[in-house]
Specification:
Helix content: over 70%
Order of helices and strands: HHH
Low-confidence stretches: none
Shape: flat
Length: 52
């Protein structure tokens, strides 16, 4: 999915604020799960869309 840089920046900021509001153990659990489920193709899409 291609999204604009502005939209991706807004979503990223919202995610950061949400994670910052969580207790540390819950935040670490979410980040750990995200790292395990991340695929190379999804990280490439994010990189490509943020570069445009």
């Amino acid at each position: 999915m291609v999204i604009s840089k502005k939209v991706s920046d807004i979503l990223w900021a919202m995610a950061e604020r949400y994670l910052a509001s969580l207790p540390e153990d819950e935040r670490n659990q979410i980040l750990s799960c995200a790292e395990k489920t991340r695929t190379p193709s999804s990280s490439k899409q994010v990189k490509d869309s943020t570069n445009s």
